[in-house]
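SAMPLE LOG
Freezer: B-3
Tube label: C17
Construct: single chain, 189 aa
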Amino acid sequence: MLAADLLRAAFRDVHGARLYGFALLLTLGQRARAGALAAAALDAGAARVDALRHPERAAAWLRARVVRDARGLPNRPQSVAERRTVLGELGMSEAAADALGELGADERAVLIAAVIEGLEIGDVATVMGREIGDVHRLLSSARRRYLASASHWLRERPPAAIPAGPIAARVEAAAAWAVAASPRGAQIP
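STRUCTURE (predicted):
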């Protein structure tokens, strides 16, 4: 019994912080909601620790649980200032935080899982509960919408006023890649 408890504790230690970060981005900085989603997923995962020994598969399963549970909860009203503050603590610029806030929950989830966390597309499909082709389409759409929103934000503010952050840089680079990879002549919505 003691070995099983140690294994569950190690599982929480390995996955806890990154899972909370995923949930925090998904909920746009709602700390209490992100904490509850991550805790519920970790509890469920710890109960299945024997089946979730492979780190990447466990990460995908846990994130799928967070996404599924988040879909079932209503969003709590949140101010733009609150979102910017919490996401800014993660190194995200105001432009990136606002652009992320313009995306739907599934678009945010796919962008976070694929771009920020760097999960393989098969694992992202697990997270999203969708087929790989659907995930590719959703990811492409999320990148285009993110870039369009961030571009709008940037046009309205002087570049010197925009702080850079590591998370924002990764998402912005992925969005730029999506635009460069789109067919010639395609317009960003």
